[in-house]
Known about the structure:
The protein is of the alpha+beta class. The chain folds into two domains: 2-139 and 338-399, 3-Layer(aba) Sandwich (Rossmann fold), CATH 3.40.50; 146-317, Glutathione S-transferase Yfyf (Class Pi), Chain A, domain 2 (Up-down Bundle). Helices cover 43% and strands 25% of the residues.
Amino acid sequence: MHISHLSLTNFRNYSNLDLVLPPHITVLQGDNAQGKSNLLEAIYLLATSRSYRVTNERELINWSALQDELPVCRLVADIQKTSGNLSLEIALMNKIVAPGEAKDAFLRGRSPSKPATTHKRIRVNGVVRRAIDLVGQINVVPFSVQDINIIGGEPALRRRYLDIANSQLDPHYLRQLQRYHRVLWQRNRLLRQIAEHQANVDELSFWDQELVQAGSYLIVQRDLMVAALEQLAQDIHGELSSEQGRLTLAYLRNIDKERGKGDSQIEETAQVFARSLDAARNKEIAQGVSLVGPHRDDLRFLADDVDMGIFGSRGQQRAIALSLKLAEANFMLSKTGEHPILLLDDVLSELDSRRRSHLLQSVARYQQVLMTATELDHFDADFLKQAVLLGVAQGRIQPLTS
């Protein structure tokens, strides 16, 4: 799988970009704030329908387009897969009350009196689709310096990591994830109403069943993925790390406070989930929030049973994060038979020479790799000989020579 052509209009730094991308390796070199990361962000958006850098999609539209009556940005990609060619398109439209108001407010450092509403339109092979139909059409694995936060950051970051990876591989997982969050919102609302004597406790039974049905699937699929990633990551981590500690991944299930074993079944998990909800009912009503379920699960990384998220050095955490991402790429390839597209955003600068060399050797095996860097000094000469080198400056891209 690889993107053969990418077109960006009014996306971030790019007012108009039309780029032919070769298979295998592309290195994007340029100073900071020139648009390198934005190019990777665009590809990630086309794969997942979301940005990995911002939550407000209005920020994705080039600010110069705000003078238009209907500010629009458009991303189009042509993809070559073993199953056939594919075309993906995302258009983001800002609907504002008065033409020019958003630009005027931006230039004055203020928010518009009536903020724009961003609408997203998605097309797959020219046909309008929902976001849920876009996810999984192409698979991407992003690498960034922020990956270390997966190891030592908040549990929500680890749950998000598992959800994004699973959603790219399993459309049913994404549907159940969306369903779970809708049910969770309704259930939390009902818990607050019960606590305020505005609803009957018997009304919880329906939402409990819905929560268990959707949540059990999420738990089991996360558990299975973690077990597979652990096997793949152990060998990679052994090559990356000079320590002798054996890497293990522990998926911690909130429903029973137990560590998943990668062989749990949905029916068994649902039974445990239901019992946990019954046991926690009084406490949940008192607090007005759902305390049991996969929205409170965690993923921990251990070396010789020592939690590296708590006790690991920054170097140890970075090695684990890198091992995890390389394992994810291997896992996607094994599950789909298609090479995922690897997006590496300035990751070499914080690695020592041995880990840089191992990373470059590992990613060179994939069909399409896009890497950003401010300097080319960290790349091996042999690696650069395999790559197409592109310079990025002020939203413009041109060929470089090594």
